[in-house]
């Protein structure tokens, strides 16, 4: 009656073994480390490694190890005080323009566990430390970008329909399209309205040059543009944090124009800010071969329809104003080296619209030069003593490549002319992650140190252990042998929770620890229901074997109902909650599922092993 087939014991043993293996990395805490990487064309060499060792030795700072690992130096320390002091001294010794010295946490998991892909679970910002940014989206820039897009769209649609116009100008919050006469204006208005249905409002006035059509973005479209800018920036920032290698970042909207970004484990705030806030992109233009760019630069007389840029050497380059394709039409980018010149390059792939446009242009301009413009936008925010906020936009534009089109190409091609492999890697990262719909600037920045995170870990560990021990004592005293079995199942339950979190590489936060503490109580709740049912069946006169069998079978539906309702609540919390609430919900969901396995199947297997083959007159419950 109380016997399991062999396959069930093998299954339980296999689950327990896998759980122990994948939970074990938590026993190997990360080392406090200082990481040194090179900037630009500089290289972290053996000489730099010796300089680091000498500096730390002269300052009397003890280290666990200092090694050159790939393209970086990693120095490990026994405590955070040594780590912080070492970082300070190394920043004073090494050139800030050549090397970045950053705090880090280095894993100590043994090689055989890493070979099985057993990694420690990620810790949240409140446990591991990291950086918190509150970023504000420059909505004025988003609207200005939309105005320029409409400007280009209007030009193209009027040219396509062969309607003559004298100019399209951006005037504050509206566009002015100048036509020669009233008839051209009416035709142009109809074309523009058809091209952008329901998005624009129109007005007309007379000007010195002719009839003027005033084009405004209506309020509904304006709000949609702002919402799109915010959502696009959230998506882009999430992609960029993935490229940074940050585990489970928290990126969420706050209000109508702000975004919260939390990056657990990141101590190098400068690199994080540089990557998150950059709006690097590319534009491809036809090069003007008719006019002299040096003459245009010296006289300031730039031909109509042209723009003047400089290349990396400072030489002037005249380009046609019309953009062939831009960065938002790039779907993938990978850094590498050009096979012919062995110079840094970025391999690009375009979306359908961009590929069609590029193929059309290159087919019509074989043996003509095309220029690639690298554009980087940053916003610096300063606050006066009286609290007045000033925003200063810095836009850097330079031509990184000019080359003749040897043959038509479309969806895939390569861009060269970058200064270093690092610049190629950064550009590929930003293009892969997508361009920001509008520049962002940091309103608030907070750094949570690893020491504070360790204090939170210690407090959370104590709370789990205290709750765990109190439950163990109660169950052992009240339910005797059955209580000890429940305690073993509870220990296995905790192991499985940690193992699943590690395998999923989920992030553990303080609310997550609260979810584990709650799961400890709920896990024994199932055993309490089973054991009380067994005691009731014994009082009703059933034999011990029959009472055990009846207790497990009849309590199952009650346990399932209770756990399923809690699981539904956890799923709702995860679906609609923000970062901390999600952390609580995910540990609760994992805990419920694992407790159902350990409290029912696990304890039944142990009870069967203890009592299954014995003739019983009474049982210790």
Question: Over the alpha carbons, how many angstroms does the gyration radius reach?
Answer: 33 Å
Q: CATH superfamily assignment of the largest domain?
A: Multidrug efflux transporter AcrB transmembrane domain
- Number of distinct helices: 16
Strand content: 25-35%
- What's the CATH first level of the largest domain? Mainly Alpha
Q: Classify the secondary structure makeup into a structural class.
A: alpha+beta
| Neighbour order of strands in the largest sheet | 14-15-13-18-19
Number of domains: 4
Mean pLDDT across the residues is 81
Residues in helices, as a percent range: 40-55%
Parts with pLDDT < 50 across at least 5 consecutive residues: none
Explain what the structure shows.
It is a single chain. The chain is an alpha+beta fold and 621 residues long. It is 50% helix and 26% strand. The protein contains 16 helices and 22 strands. A five-stranded antiparallel beta sheet has the order 14-15-13-18-19. A four-stranded antiparallel beta sheet has the order 2-3-1-4, covered by helices on one side. A four-stranded antiparallel beta sheet has the order 11-12-6-21. Strand 11 and strand 12 form a beta hairpin. The mean pLDDT is 81.
Jot down its keywords.
Alpha-Beta Plaits, 621 residues, 4 domains, 50% helix, 5-stranded antiparallel β-sheet, Multidrug efflux transporter AcrB transmembrane fold, elongated, alpha+beta, single chain
């Amino acid at each position: 009656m109380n016997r399991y087939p062999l396959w069930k014991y093998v299954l339980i043993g296999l689950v327990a073994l896998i759980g122990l293996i994948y939970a074990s990395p938590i026993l190997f805490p990360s080392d406090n480390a200082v990481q040194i990487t090179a900037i630009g064309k500089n290289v972290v060499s053996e000489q730099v490694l010796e300089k680091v060792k000498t500096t730390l030795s002269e300052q009397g700072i003890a280290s666990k190890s200092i090694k050159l690992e790939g393209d970086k130096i990693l120095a490990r320390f026994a405590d955070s005080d040594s780590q912080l002091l070492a970082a300070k001294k190394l920043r004073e010794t090494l050139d800030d323009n050549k090397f970045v010295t950053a705090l880090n946490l280095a894993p100590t998991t043994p090689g055989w566990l890493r070979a099985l892909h057993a990694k420690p679970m990620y810790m949240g910002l409140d446990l591991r430390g990291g950086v918190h940014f509150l970023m504000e989206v420059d909505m004025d820039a988003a609207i200005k970008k939309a105005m320029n897009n409409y400007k280009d769209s209007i030009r193209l649609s009027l040219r396509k329909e062969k309607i003559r116009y004298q100019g399209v100008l951006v005037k504050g919050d509206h566009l002015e399209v100048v036509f020669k006469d009233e008839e051209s204006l009416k035709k142009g208005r109809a074309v523009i309205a058809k091209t952008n249905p329901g998005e624009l409002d129109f007005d007309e006035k007379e000007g010195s040059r002719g009839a003027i059509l005033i084009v405004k973005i209506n309020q509904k479209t304006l709000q949609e543009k702002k919402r799109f800018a915010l959502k696009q920036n959230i998506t882009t920032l999430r992609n960029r944090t993935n490229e940074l290698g940050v585990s489970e970042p928290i990126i969420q909207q706050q209000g109508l124009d702000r975004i919260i970004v939390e990056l657990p484990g990141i101590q190098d705030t400068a690199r994080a800010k540089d990557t998150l806030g950059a709006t690097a992109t590319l534009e491809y233009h036809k090069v003007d071969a008719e006019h002299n760019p040096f003459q245009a630069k010296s006289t300031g007389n730039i031909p109509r329809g042209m723009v003047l840029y400089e290349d990396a050497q400072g030489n002037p380059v005249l380009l046609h104003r019309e953009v062939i394709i831009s960065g938002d039409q790039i779907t993938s980018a990978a850094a590498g080296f050009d096979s012919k010149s062995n110079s840094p390059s970025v391999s690009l792939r375009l979306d359908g619209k961009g590929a069609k446009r590029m193929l059309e242009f290159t087919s019509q301009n074989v043996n003509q030069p095309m220029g690639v413009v690298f554009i980087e936008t940053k916003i610096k925010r300063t606050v006066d003593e009286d609290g007045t906020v000033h925003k200063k936009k810095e836009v850097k534009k330079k031509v990184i490549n000019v080359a003749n089109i040897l043959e038509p190409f479309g969806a895939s091609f390569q861009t060269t002319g970058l200064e270093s492999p690092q610049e190629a890697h950064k550009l590929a990262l930003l293009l892969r992650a997508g361009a920001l719909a509008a520049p962002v600037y940091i309103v608030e920045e907070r750094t949570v140190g690893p020491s504070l995170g360790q204090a939170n870990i210690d407090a959370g560990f104590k709370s789990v252990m205290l709750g765990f021990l109190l439950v163990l004592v109660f169950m052992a005293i009240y339910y005797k042998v059955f209580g000890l079995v429940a305690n073993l199942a509870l220990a296995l339950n905790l192991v499985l929770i940690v193992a699943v979190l590690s395998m999923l590489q989920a992030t553990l936060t303080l609310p997550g620890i609260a979810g584990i503490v709650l799961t400890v109580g709920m896990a024994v709740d199932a055993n309490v229901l089973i054991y009380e049912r067994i005691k009731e069946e014994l009082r009703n006169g059933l034999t011990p074997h029959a009472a055990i069998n009846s207790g497990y079978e009849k309590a199952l539906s009650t346990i399932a109902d209770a756990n399923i309702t809690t699981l539904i609540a956890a799923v709702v919390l995860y679906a609609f909650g923000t970062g901390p609430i999600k952390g609580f919900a995910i540990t609760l969901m994992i805990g419920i599922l694992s407790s159902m396995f350990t409290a029912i199947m696990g304890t039944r297997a142990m009870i069967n092993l203890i009592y299954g083959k014995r003739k019983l007159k009474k049982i210790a419950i």
